[in-house]
Design brief:
The protein is α/β, with parallel strands linked by helices and 268 residues long. It is 40% helix and 24% strand. Strand 9 and strand 10 form a beta hairpin. Helix 4 crosses helix 5 and helix 5 packs across helix 6.
């Protein structure tokens, strides 16, 4: 069931993440070429682009996992380059990340995976760590008996939810999702989309979601940013991008799947 526009509207005009003149270079190749982007607080921003366009590089650079050559990244108004190490760690704890394949540790149970960020940051008793992890498990709709299972024992959809629970372990304000519905069947993907919307509303999350899933774009995203050749070539609502004249965007949305999913917007 699709959400209403009111449910999906950003909660404020405040900028959660501001990126200016960002340049990331691998060897002699500029992967991000003086890129500018604002992500508004309380929105789900979908990020699309061809393979190798720089989508994941953008997210990883914002998170500090990749170095930049030039540019400014601000989170909640704080320039990351101006922060002391302790300040930067505190800001990073306000961000949660769900990687494309889940990146769960195969040798740990699900509850141990969820507890891992808490153990690194929080000073809590084992009993309280377990209680909090079980709350996160319930929050993402996993049965409690999944706690003592290992990642290999879970279905694809359950693995995604477990990875999401770990991303939410420290109660982040910003959530980064890298292809969260890839590899899922349509029923599981739709369920994940609805879960994301519920969590966004209940936890006041800001979400940057890299995805190729046209249905997810339609269901969850307030705005969409398209990347090509290291730059943002289009940014706006789904309706804005459907009307865009860029040839790649036209091809992206006009395939058979796109015509089915976006039939109402295309024919409007």
């Amino acid at each position: 069931m699709a959400s209403t526009e009111q449910e999906r509207a950003p909660q404020s005009d405040e900028v959660a993440i501001r990126v200016r003149d960002l340049e990331v270079v691998f060897g002699n190749k500029a992967v991000l070429d003086h890129l500018d982007l604002d992500i508004m607080r309380g929105e789900v921003l979908g990020v699309i682009g061809a393979s190798g366009s720089g989508k994941s590089v953008l997210a990883r650079t914002i998170l500090g996992l990749l170095p930049k050559r030039n540019g400014v990244i601000e989170i909640f108004g704080r320039n990351l380059d101006d922060l002391r190490e302790a300040e930067r760690r505190a800001l990073e704890q306000r961000c949660g990340v769900m990687f494309q394949q889940g990146a769960l540790f195969s040798s740990l149970t699900i509850v141990e995976n969820i507890q891992l960020p808490m153990r690194e940051i929080l000073h809590l008793s084992p009993r309280l760590l377990t209680e909090l992890a079980m709350l996160k498990l319930d929050m993402v709709g996993l049965p409690l008996d999944a706690a003592e299972k290992y990642p290999a024992e879970l279905s694809g959809g359950m693995t995604k939810r477990a990875a999401l629970a770990r991303a939410l372990a420290l109660d982040p304000e910003i959530l980064f999702l890298d292809e969260p519905t890839s590899g899922l069947d349509p029923i599981a993907a739709d369920a994940f989309d609805q879960l994301l919307l519920t969590l966004k509303a209940s936890l006041n999350l800001t979400v940057m979601m890299i995805t190729h899933d046209l249905s997810s774009l339609h269901t969850t995203c307030d705005r969409i940013a398209a990347i090509a050749k290291g730059k943002i070539i289009a940014l706006g609502t789904l309706e804005d991008l459907l009307m865009h004249e860029n040839p790649w965007l036209k091809q992206y949305f006009s395939g058979e799947r796109g015509r089915t999913i976006f039939a109402d917007q295309i024919t409007a």
